[in-house]
Design a protein that fits this description.
single chain, mainly alpha, two-stranded antiparallel sheet, 6 helices, 2 strands, about 70% helix, elongated
């Protein structure tokens, strides 16, 4: 075997080793991506559970129950507490949307829409919050469209766009 043949064999071996290393790196990157997604979902679930646990608090629980049934039945202090609770839930929902964890899931087109419709039918006060306050700080147009569609399905009417952070523009 002359030097040219040895160099060719060495280049082939080096190329194969490089290809093997590249394949290993791709595999590791995919695993890291799956691990990162899983961690994001666990963190998001933990945050949502923390928000939901507040409904069990003896002070806030009655406010949640009353506001969930009828937002307007709350006094001004209770409304503020209920709004903050709803905003925490919407922030978590927004993060999930921006993270790409929206889409087909168990045969539904939108996980966020299905969850919102269900929540707003069970607790219409949350829908009132969305219409009066939450929509105003839903800055992603895609998420706003999903939530507006959920509102229409839950309440049988369009969102009243005259509301802006709790103030209704009566001139519209």
């Amino acid at each position: 075997m002359d030097w040219d043949q040895i160099a060719t064999v060495a280049q082939l071996v080096t190329g194969a080793a490089t290809l093997g290393v590249a394949a290993l790196l791709v595999s590791q990157l995919r695993q890291q991506h799956r691990d990162s997604e899983r961690e994001l979902l666990y963190t998001s679930n933990d945050q949502l559970q923390s928000v939901m646990q507040r409904t069990l608090d003896p002070h806030f629980g009655p406010i949640w129950h009353k506001g969930g049934a009828d937002y307007d039945s709350l006094d001004s202090v209770e409304q503020l507490q209920f709004r903050m609770f709803c905003q925490m839930g919407m922030v978590t929902q927004s993060v999930n949307f921006r993270s790409g964890h929206e889409g087909l899931d168990r045969g539904i087109d939108s996980r966020i829409k299905a969850q919102s419709v269900s929540a707003w039918k069970s607790w219409p006060g949350m829908g009132t919050y969305y219409e009066r306050y939450g929509r105003g700080h839903t800055y992603d147009p895609g998420l706003r469209t999903i939530l507006d569609d959920a509102f229409l399905e839950a309440f049988g009417r369009e969102v009243d766009g005259a509301w802006d952070f709790g103030v209704k523009d009566t001139a519209s």
